[in-house]
Amino acid sequence: MMPAAPPRDRAALALAALLVLLAVASFATLDLQWSAFFAPEAAASTAEFLAGFAPPELAPAFLLRTLQATLETLAMSALGTLIAAGCGLALALPGAGRFGRLARVPTRIVLNVLRSIPELVWAALLLVAAGLGPLAGTLALAAHTSGVLGRLFADALENAPPQPEQALRTNGAGALAAFFYATLPLTLPQMLSYTLYRWENNIRAAAVLGVVGAGGLGQMLKYHLSLFQMPSAATAILATLLLVALVDALSFAVRRWLTR
Amino acid sequence: MSAALPAHLQDPSWRGRALGAAVGLALLWPVLVYSEFKPWTLLDAQSLAAAGAFLSGFAHPVFAPDFLAMVLRESWQTVAIATAGLSLALVGAIPATIIVNERLSVSRLGTGRMRPAAVLVRQLVRWVLVLLRSVPELVWALLFVRVAGLGPTAGVLAIALTYCGMLAKVYAEILESGSAHATEALLANGSSRLAALFYGALPDTAAELVSYTVYRWECAIRGSAVMGFVGAGGLGQRMDESTKMMAGGEVSTMLIVFVLLVACADLVSWFLRRRLA
Amino acid sequence: MQAYRLDQLTVRHLTGTRAVALDGISLAVAAGEQVAVIGPSGAGKTTLLATLACAHRPESGTFEVLGSDPWRLPDAARHRLRARLFLAPQTPPLPPRQRVVTSVLAARLPRWSLRQALASLVKPVDPAAAYAALARFHLGDKLYARVDRLSGGERQRCGLARLLLSEAEIFLVDEPLSALDPALAQVTLATLIEEAGARGAALVCSLHQVDMARALFPRIVGLRAGRILFDARREDVSDAMIAELYANENQDAPLLNPHETPDSLAVGACF
How many A×B Cβ pairs under 8 Å? Predict the structure, then answer.
């Protein structure tokens, strides 16, 4: 006799229905101005708007300023990521339970808060203390990325095999020395890889942080857009794309070299 | 220091390490200069006064009912912008993935080479996708605010465009990482491309595809909050306004609500991904 | 001073069902004595060595190392005591991407201050000593090689080279020959015994290779299911005793703990 068909997965269907409902509700409650884009007049004005971007501004003096802004953005991202790696490692030790279970949970909460707040929000807040300019951007990147890297490093430390460190401790080595000789070498390649991967992310973040005033290409872009200087804005966008591609390639190459 | 060690005892990586350290330090100086890294300015009188005033407001989050109601409304708007943006992104990403997927190429069956027109179409779509995801979504938002004015439309479209590019890329990678055998067999026996996709590639990869989409939804929520800072509505815009008014208490409340929102989204996302595995 | 005095010692596993691993063990090891511990898999050889290394706290009974009960001492004193012992585990505890010279020099860690330890990480302070130790196992040319580029047998011998560099008075070696072919095993064991003899250090070595144990060690202890079946001089150990020890040997596969790789999505890139 033919076996009966298995029952339908009610829960999955309900879940799918709920998601669709969420999407529909989103469209319904938002005040979306489709006409701005898709009405015939709007199409013409959009086309005119886009045409204003070409050709990008290529005067040597302006290119020099763009280059400086690019270097500023690059420096922001690199320094922010570097500081974050240090702070992340410092927070990863209690976060991995190395200082007892009592320190682990609060540290994990701190790390979660750090990474929940996006870089731009951090920048907007830090501008109050640091003023306009790349310092706020660097610190914002450092704050957010510390949370991300701290959590990743803590997980890596917790998942590292304990035998090498235990062997050294059993034979009388001190706790810190055993950590440096056994566990850190085990987790270092992965931690470096995460750090480089976050640098790729941070260069994109650094490029836009300037929009709130944190320096670099973002600040340049906002400035020229607000003055309706579209060709200059176009150059800033192109510089951003090039910088991102460059850092992506660099990070990829270094990660390849590390895992040779 | 003792006399030079015999050759077989000399450390072969010492030179490289010392050089690497020197180069690193040499690079550090321009980095510090270009990023104007002067953390001591945080401690000068003006900064301390401003920070102190702001932070003291922080310690007293505003819990007035109408303010809280406004914050919750704006939080919903942030989630709505993210969800709407992601839905539109899917509308674009799914066809793009199917077009770009080489496994579904009928012209390649048996001959090993695609028709030139097919190659061209695939390449074009790939380039468009790369362009869409290379431009940061905030830049798209800035541009769209100029066209559509302040409000959620700019945010939704910015998310839709960038996430279309990102989703399509990752979907394509996920589909390609699965085994091609099932799809090839179906195509070879004459099924249509879509059918081959649904019966061949999707069963194995569906869980991973949905999992990544849910993860991207979480990112979109964060992104839409960020876009509020350039005028795209939602919680971000309110935070920007309150920060500019130095209303520490309001910012504090909104940050708390935002962190909780992200934690909830994290939880929902983890739950959904667990369920799908 | 005796190296070890164990009297009716009971040791339980620390995890899982907390079953009894060693049941009422009584053992005395004099300073400079060389003992081979043999027995089927699961008999408790590794647990015994871990207990002797003060790495596993016994539940009841008497346990004295070099004249004192380590578990009655304050933590710092017990840790100093550990520096006088050396446990070489069965799987070499060497981080894969570390260089052999650093791994072998790690034997000196109990002696070094933290500053010296970190300095040696950057540039090995005494490569000559590491070279001498490795040369005794015919691994001198691997001084600056990476651990993961070595074969299993070479890694095992590196772990033993670390033992040679330590300043311990007691050697505890767990299955040092599992990855070595018979000829190499013979030479390696001979080197270990020679070093122990030269230093006057006590040597407790667990082995599966019964013939080698009987050939090279003056005293053999047979362990089965957590109990000492016999503890005799080499001459007094008969084939019948060995047969009884290994009767119906139970092959239990060791439990592997696969490490959870962090979720790749957790890298958290939203850009």
Answer: 164
- Domain at A154, CATH number: 1.10.3720.10
**pLDDT tens, C76-133?**
888 888 889 999 988 888 888 888 999 999 999 888 888 888 888 888 999 999 999 9
Architecture of domain C1-84+171-178+202-248: 3-Layer(aba) Sandwich (3.40)
Does the residue A128 lie in any domain?
A: yes
A177/C109 touch (CB, cutoff 8 Å), yes or no: yes
Long-range contacts from C55-59, C-beta under 8 angstroms, 24+ separation? C55/A166, C55/A170, C55/C82, C55/C87, C56/C11, C56/C14, C58/C9, C58/C10, C58/C11, C58/C22, C59/C10, C59/C11, C59/C12
Task: Please count the CA atoms within 13 angstroms of the CA of A20 that sit on its side-chain side.
Answer: 6
Structural domain containing residue A119: 72-258
Contact partners of B by the rule of 3+ C-beta pairs under 8 A?
A, C
Residues of chain A with pLDDT under 50: none
* Contact indicator for C134, C5 with CB cutoff of 8 Å: no
- Quote the minimal CA–CA distance from A99 to chain B in Å: 25
**How many angstroms separate the CA of residue A116 from the nearest CA in chain B?**
6
Superfamily of domain B61-276: MetI-like (1.10.3720.10)
CA separation for the pair C31, C2 (Å, rounded): 5
Confidence of residue C255 (pLDDT cuts 50, 70, 90): very low
Mean local confidence (pLDDT), C176-195: 91
Q: Which percentage of chain B shows pLDDT scores above 90?
A: 37
Tell me the whole-structure pTM to 2 decimals: 0.81
